[in-house]
Specification:
Radius of gyration: 35 Å
Structural class: alpha+beta
CATH topology of one domain: Beta-lactamase
Number of strands: 23
Distance between the termini: 148 Å
Length: 606
């Protein structure tokens, strides 16, 4: 007979083990039911919970009248099909129906059949449909007994047609909105937060198909719609200017032509355009070909301005008292500098002899501008500081503060940091060795014409119906200089060569041209076939009151006559100035009917 294998001690041990395991299970169960309850409930809810952000309607962008829509938001639909579970016959029927309704080509219809054959539960078959077109397709589907179509709506940005072919109005100034709803470039990017508003936030549970259950929806944040913008731009003037720069670009075989029209007293930009431009309604195609077209050269592209800077050198001479407009200088055609190591020349390499400063500026003599610069102070160091001070006060080398994205500061060598040699001072006197933007030139010349105030250029007049108050950047020139400077600029256009292209009976005009070489970074040399041509000036309806400032840049223009000192375009920058200036000043309703009291004008020359 076998002995007993059980024992009291063994049973007690098993009982202890069972008690410990049972106790552990009870403790663990208690942990899950009490301590971790909230965590488990939240984890379970996350599996059926959806939190979504619904973008608000983006603000509209209008021209200065508040009635012409430049950029608007519309509803566009996506047509979606669930191909999951479709048999071959159903796929073919759906493909045939959609091909007919959407007008698909054979290639597009074949691509659609491939999508349907994928069996995916979510297939986008059409995008950017108007709600009206979607309704037509859905009605046709009902009639044809074709099921399985669904529609998703979203906001889309549309832009007004421009003054040139395949371009939207003020495209580079306004920018565009990408698929994610973010503004890119120009006004759209600068005012992104204002235009986009605040998205609404909605919480809801979802069913087995992943769709929100409507009776569980909870609005966490109702959001806020984007604010509308009213610009300073005049749509009619903008369209005219776009046509002018397009025509000039073609005539001059230029790489690009830009122009900006601005109020010299308020800084309001009435028009600004560059050609080539682009169509913001099809920005994706532009991005694939040449995204550089998105950049606005008026505010983002810097270049050597050339002889327009002779006006700034003249200001330095007048302020220091080292010259007057009647002071006579000897135009020797060239100057040897830096102990014979460097030299500057007039554009035509010829000497004109004794000329007053006024005539030296009018005939754009580099040697006379250099002599004025050297005469500013006893040393090159102090003369450089005096000239650079004028640049700084007029905003050269600093941001103008214009309210668009991507403004460039320009390139200026500060003589207090890196001392200028004689050649540097001479070049600076006639706008070489410095790089600016057209908007900087426009604001600098505005200060010369408005009594010495440096305005802040801007393109938005009102946000959400409330006017935008812009602050000027201060008094930077003596008001007494304005009559002298406007008289000088008017005198410049009295030179026969300029007067022929700028003759505008009934208007008072003045300005200054500039020409500069273009550096070829590939060949590492200055180009001899293309140049940058500039003109900055004013136009007024009565003597003594400039109504508008107009800045022109013909970038990479190819002269039809290229002899030494004779770089002649089919449409010169001064002639384009006259066209644009007269287009703008005669635009109905742009300017007040009765001009303010005019400023005095100094008689210059003759």
């Amino acid at each position: 007979m076998l002995g007993r294998t059980d024992s009291r001690r063994r049973l007690l041990a098993l009982l202890v083990v069972f008690a410990m395991v049972g106790g552990g299970l009870v403790v663990r169960l208690g942990y899950w039911q009490i301590t971790a309850r909230d965590m488990l409930v939240a984890s379970a809810h996350r599996q059926i919970y959806v939190r979504s952000e619904v973008p608000s309607r983006r603000g509209q962008i209008y021209d200065r009248s508040g009635t012409i829509l430049l950029a608007g938001t519309v509803t566009r639909d996506r047509l979606v099909v669930s191909a999951s579970g479709m048999d071959a016959a159903t796929q073919e029927r759906m493909a045939g129906f959609l091909s007919g309704e959407l007008g698909l080509t054979a290639v597009e219809a074949a691509a659609l059949r491939t999508k349907l054959a994928s069996g995916k539960a979510y297939v986008v078959v059409a995008k950017d449909l108007t709600p009206e077109r979607t309704d037509e397709i859905r009605a046709a589907a009902t009639t044809a007994d074709v099921g399985g179509l669904s529609v998703e709506s979203e906001y889309a940005r549309v832009y007004a047609d421009g003054g040139g072919p395949d371009a939207s109005l003020a495209a580079q100034l306004i920018g565009f909105v990408n698929r994610a709803g973010a503004g890119q470039y120009g006004i759209e990017q600068y005012y992104q937060d204002v235009l986009a508003g605040r998205a609404s936030v909605i919480e809801a549970d979802r069913d087995a198909n992943g769709d929100p259950i409507s009776d569980t929806e909870h609005v966490v944040d109702p959001g806020a719609p984007g604010a509308d913008l009213r610009l300073t731009l005049d749509a009619d003037v903008q369209a005219l200017i776009e046509q002018e720069v397009m025509a000039a670009r073609i005539a001059d075989d230029a790489q690009a032509v830009s122009a900006v029209v601005m109020d010299p007293y308020t800084g309001e930009v009435y028009a600004e355009a560059t050609y080539p431009s682009y169509n913001a309604n099809d920005y994706a195609a532009v991005a694939a070909i040449d995204p550089r077209q998105f950049i606005d050269p008026i505010v983002s592209d810097v270049y050597e301005p050339g002889s327009v800077f002779k006006l700034l050198t003249t200001i330095a001479g007048l302020e220091t008292g080292t010259t007057t407009l009647d002071t006579t200088f000897d135009d020797t055609g060239s100057l040897t500098l830096d102990g014979g190591r460097t030299r500057i020349q007039d554009a035509d390499r010829k000497a004109m002899g004794k000329l007053t400063l006024a005539d030296g500026i009018a005939y754009s003599r580099n040697v006379i501008a250099a002599r004025v610069a050297f005469g500013l102070a006893p040393t090159v160091r102090d003369a450089s500081a005096a000239l650079h001070s004028v640049w700084t006060r007029l905003g050269i080398g600093s941001l103008t503060g214009i309210d668009v994205a991507g403004e460039a500061r320009g390139i200026v060598n500060d003589p207090a940091i890196s001392a200028w040699r004689e050649i540097d001072l001479a070049n600076a006197a006639f706008g070489q060795g410095v790089a600016v933007t057209p908007i900087q030139l426009a604001t600098a010349f505005a200060a010369m014409c408005n009594g010495g105030v440096l305005v802040t250029p801007h393109v938005v007049a009102a946000i959400g119906g409330r006017s935008v108050e812009m602050t000027n950047r201060g008094q930077v020139l003596s008001p007494d200089l304005t009559p002298t400077l406007t008289g000088l600029m008017h005198h410049v256009l009295g030179i026969p060569w300029y007067s022929k292209g700028t003759n505008a009976p009934g208007f008072w005009l003045g300005g200054k041209t500039g020409t500069a070489q273009i550096w070829d970074p590939v060949k590492q040399e200055w180009r001899t076939d293309r140049f940058d041509f500039s003109f900055v000036g004013f136009i007024g309806r009565q003597v003594g009151h400039p109504d508008l400032i107009v800045a022109i840049r013909v970038h990479g223009g190819r002269p039809r006559i290229g002899a030494t000192g004779q770089l002649i375009l089919d449409v010169g920058s001064h002639e384009l100035f006259r066209r644009i200036a007269t287009d703008a000043i005669t635009a109905p309703g742009l300017l007040p009917d009765v001009p303010v009291e005019p400023l005095p004008v100094a008689k210059v020359g003759g």
